[in-house]
Amino acid sequence: MPDFSSSQWLLMAAGAFVIGLSKSGLPGLGILAVPLFASMIPSKDSTGFILPMLVVGDIIGVAVFRQHAQWKFLWKLFPWTLVGVVAGWQALGWLNNAQIRPLIGGIVLVMLSLNLWRQNHPDLKDLIPTGWWFASVIGLLAGFTTMVANAAGPIMIIYLLAMRLPPAAFIGTSAWFFLLVNTVKVPFSAQLGLITLSSLKFNAILLPGIGLGAYIGIRFARRVPRRVFDRLVQVLAAIGAMKLFF
């Protein structure tokens, strides 16, 4: 891992804080952390660097919302998601940093567009199909995008909205899904050399940021006007994603 300047440490702390917020009741916010870390760390390495911090955030989310999970909606996804993770693992093995950088940027922009479409269609639950094939497509896409770019949040939001879950069940089901999937991804990332003892030391330094973000997310963040908050996050994430192309 490289030596970081004070400004880079500040940005990474902000990224850890965002991860904590995203796992404590603000789903979709985590996509902001993806281009942020990819802009400071070689893009391919950043996918593994951020993963242990996501797992910590997932553990916090499960601890708070675990009793609300609706498992029947998750069992449909898991086999297909695993196939997607393996496909993403193979892709990461083939691609180098120069190729991964625009790929991550492109995935983030596509996910942001998907999220924007969702927000502009309040009748979304009535537009999206709920058949078995829908779960298989969502599982494959979620597995691939989470392995390659840690950016499957918007896909899961679409799926869980289609299942018509109440807010607490929505968050609890999402928390369990990402805890299990991100844990499964760890050995794949380690095999590619994207998680090392050195990167874990940096993760440990950033853990307080995750804890602080989770605390504020649980106590205060949901009081912020959601529409304004979402737009700001999307603009910042889009700017970060576009920087990955240059």
| Gap between N and C termini | 22 Å
Name the structural class.
mainly alpha
**Could you give the order of the helices and strands?**
HHHHHHHHHHHHH
Major sheet size, sense and barrel closure: none
Number of domains: 1
Tell me what you see in this structure.
The protein has 246 residues and is mainly alpha-helical. The protein has one domain. It has helices at 6-22, 33-38, 43-49, 51-65, 71-75, 78-94, 97-119, 124-127, 132-149, 153-162, 167-191, 197-219, 226-243. Helix 4 (51-65) packs antiparallel against helix 11 (167-191), helix 6 (78-94) runs parallel beside helix 11 and helix 7 runs parallel beside helix 10. The protein starts with 5 loop residues before the first helix and ends with a helix. The mean pLDDT is 82.
What are the defining features of this structure?
globular; 13 helices; 246 residues; mainly alpha; single chain
Describe what is shown at a glance.
The chain has 246 residues and is mostly helical. It is 76% helix and 0% strand.
SSE inventory with pairings:
Blueprint: H1 6-22, H2 33-38, H3 43-49, H4 51-65, H5 71-75, H6 78-94, H7 97-119, H8 124-127, H9 132-149, H10 153-162, H11 167-191, H12 197-219, H13 226-243
